[in-house]
Specification:
1 helix; 83% helix; mainly alpha; 18 residues
């Protein structure tokens, strides 16, 4: 996976958690 993809997924997950 590309670092950009991981960053995007992490952002989405963080948004979902908050």
């Amino acid at each position: 996976v590309l670092n950009t993809e991981v960053e995007a997924i992490t952002k989405l997950l963080k948004k979902d958690l908050v």
